[in-house]
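User: What would this chain look like folded?
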Amino acid sequence: MTPSSDIFLTNHTQDQPPELPQQQEPFPGGSVETLLYLLEQAIAYSGTGIVISDATLPDNPIIYCNRAFEKITGYSRNEIIGRNCRFLQGADTDPIAIQEVSTSIREGNSCQVVLKNYRKDGTPFWNELKISPVRDTKGRVIHYIGAQTDITERVLATEARTTAQTALKQSEKKYRYLVEMSQDLIWSTDQEGRFTFVNSAAKRILGYEPEEMIGHTFTDFQPPEQQQQGWEVYQRILGTQSYYQYETVQLHSDGTPVHISFNAIVLRDEAGLVFGTTGIGRDITESKRAEVALLQSQTFLNSVLDNLPVGVCCKNASDLRFAFCNKTCEELLGFSRQDVLGKNDYDLFPQEQADFFTSIDREVLRNGKLVDIPEEQIQTGHQELRILHTRKIPLLDAQGTPEYLLAITEEITERKQIEIQLRKSEELYRTIAKNFPNGAVVLFDSDCRYTLAEGTDLEVVGCCKDKELLEGKTLHETVTPETSELLEPSFHAALAGTENVFEVPYRDSRFCGDSFASRIYKVHTLPVRNENGEITAGMMMTQNITERKQAEEALLAQLCMEALRADVHLALTQKATLQQNLQLCAETIVRHLDAAFARIWILNSEEDVLQLQASAGMYTHIDGPHSRVRVGEFKIGMIAQKRQPHLTNAVQDDPRISDRKWAKREGMVAFAGYPLLVEEKLVGVMAMFFTQPLCEAKQMGLFTVANAIALNIEHKRTTEALSETEAKLQKLAANMPGMIYRFLLRPDGLISFPYMSPGCRELYELEPEAAQSDVSLVYNLIHPDDLQEHKDSVALSAQTLQPWYWEGRMYTASGKLKWIQGASRPELQANGDIIWDGLLMDITERKTAEEALRYKTTQLEQTLKELQHTQLQLVQSEKMSGLGQLVAGVAHEINNPVNFIYGNLVHTEEYTQDLLYLLSLYQQHYPHPVPEIQEEAETIDLDFLLEDLPKMLTSMKVGAERIREIVLSLRNFSRLDEAQIKPVDIHEGIDSTLLILHNRLKAKPESPGIQVIKEYSDLPLIECYAGQLNQVFMNILVNAIDALEGAGGWVLGTGDKGLGTRDKGLGTRKSPIPNSQSPIPNPQSPIPNPQSPIPNPQSLIPNPQSPAPEIRICTEVLNAQSVVIKIKDNGSGITANVRSRLFDPFFTTKTVGKGTGLGLSISYQIITQKHGGVLKCFSEPGQGAEFWVEIPICQN
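Assistant: Here's the prediction, encoded as structure tokens.
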């Protein structure tokens, strides 16, 4: 407000025009009157609203306004002149600004304010008002000039900017809070993919602190085989313009895989250059498991939907693209399912139709309510026009946000055609109405008086099957006031030209009793026009849609239960305690079924009491009188006792409800209680109250929910028991001698020790953690001479997947030398990894004892050598003749009682386990027995007995198995019983046989030594009967030795007397059963050699040259399926006649009593029949003999 803005007028009379201010230039080319006219026109057409008020009159009335002021306010000049400007103000106009204007006018000063005024139509606008007083020559204020500018857009922009800035600050604060509180992984990386920010969710999802991940790329936390693919995905992210979504597998800090769904977006600077990425990662490991269950439910639901008589389709709420349509919908739309899925309305329908459909869809999603579209016309894929009646409703996710849009539609083309025909003729109306299915048709005039009434269900409009009682009466005369209040607005709307379609439940029993109380009718009111389009009457059509509504409700109930089951499954799979999982289930049930409250009890079987674990809804506490319910008490205890559900939709009349007053006060209507059973075993009870009836589909659906919860309870209990057992096993592993370990070999050759027991400290003098983190620490301790053998044994086990066994030397961390024995069994994993779980033992003391024993044995053999030589020559003939029969008889006699003992040990162990389990049940359920039992338990030291008895039975079983294997070994050489087929090293069998025959091969006073030349190839492990194959080697080698000892001659049948024959040989001994000091047999242990010499056989073909006797043993791989063992001597050979009968039973060239001739015959049967191989002999007189043993590598 400044005085300089005041306007002063000069003195003038009526005869004189006012004088212009002297500082202005004269108006060029015109008079003063022209100037005043131009000024008046400038004010009139100015864009600023200008008013002039008369200050000399009361209340400063407006005496002038220009066109801009009229345009701003919406008032005409006549409505403005004579009024004060206050008439534009409203209740919310700033009082301070009003006071400033009043003060300025009162004091005769200028002012400038901003006011919120209102136009004639009531819309507000912001007005920037400038007021200047006009003074006469004496300085008195005679007028006020007001200049008004509409600044609404500027004010609104300012307010919007202020609001946006406030929201931005709040959003930033909220964002920072949400980032840190988010359960999802939120991250940012630089252009090279290195993490620059990670929120605290990283610890929960991946087990790493955020600081540990900063500076690393996300591929550093992926499995090695996925890192290259992960880097390629990151490069694709950098090349996208929008967000990028993908799923991947990351490794938790403990090595377990974690499935994560990533949403990533590229970060760009103002110049558009990429400087990094950011995004969100969600742990979807559990949801992956849930996908299988959801897929099964979806298959069932699709089958139901495809068989519905109405069209059902579903769109994604995000982009309104079709996600599902059933077969009926395909027929209605005229498109196949493949043509529809993934498309939107604009891809299928004309522009106008697509616009209409899309607008309705958005309205449904925006309001979150069901929308009924009584009529919509579509052009099908077959270029046909159809009219559909459609209902659309949003399907919400767990957070209440629309996820899908569900549409249920039926074709009403024929019905609409009927309605069109009804407009042409009343007679046609009546004809159609008489045949209207499950409903009625009425016409009414402008007074809502029925002029026509036809149909099977006239009761819904006020008459029971008698149109005469209805026609001529008004709406108010035929229905109840409630029904009249419902229908009258639609009648008037029809007479005004508006159609309405709605549904009403019919409950008027004045005429027809209660039989129609449960019906639902679809009511359609519409105007009836004449040929000129004038409305002459109204029409109402009613149709009984009870069955269709029931089908829709059943479908919705099915969808609800499917969603409930899926959410219950997700709740049960959360990593939480059992009580927390059950609480989530109760909350899920309340949310999906709108239950008043839901509760879950777990059975305490020891006390026979149900304990309340979860409560959601109107009651959330788990204490109080229902926290512990004894089985058989109240309705909950009765459900548990009878193991049957209790379902009712009449709670207030249910005799099992103890407090009916409470039920009536709270409006309870339905109750559903289910026993939680797992294979007829009760684990708890689930119960719910509802304030509305519970349909049968939901009652049945809750059975599966109860089963899922019951299985989870049992699973949780089983998991807890397994955890306790695992802890005990860990403790046992820590106290076992030696070291238990797990060894991992990856397909790329990387090795590691995922687990080492505390025995690592004693065995290696290393901490388990250090050895696990650096495998080279262990391998560097292996003796250099044994390292390659160790690596070869591991490689062979990995290649064949056969058990690994190794003995070797190693140094401890302090330099102490030890002998180590290891054994384990490999397991091939699905991802190609091979895992060995095994045991390493320190056998240094045993090796020392073996070495000492070997040295003493050598001395003893040297001392008794001459005595044994003489003694064996004297008794050999007598001993060998009866030894075979004696061994067979002893084996048979020992085998019978051993089988009796071993067979009964199995039952004894079962009975003992049953008694021990029964005793544990007594201890569990009766922990405090009577004093006599307790005293006797202490007397017999019951705890020690329970611990020692299984060990004693195990020891007895091991002993019996040891005897059985000894007997089997005897029988192998006496009767050649079958052994188990197993992969063996053929070379070990040959070497063991040669070791047994060592005495026959070495030089003696009466015969030179026989040189054995071994030419072994690299053979794989062969599947065979090891004992029987050794028998074959023994027979062939003994015959070769006999031929070479007999002055170069070849003698058949010597296997009958020599070691290794079926009927009289002793055979090789198997390694003893492991005992507690030697858990794994040592194949390198020497086998005692019999020293009995073999008498020289009769020569068939003399060999005068008598070369140095030798036996050549050669092994090689014939092909991918078989191997061959060649045993050749340089004796005198075999004639063709003898060679043709070589493998005949009882054929021998020995003297009577020297043999039976079964050795080579039995060998032939073992190779050909038992192993599917070939036994051949190649020989020429004077050229020696060569036997070929061909056997398959793998037995079928």
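The CA atoms of residues 478 and 831 lie 79 Å apart. If you want, I can go into more detail on any region.
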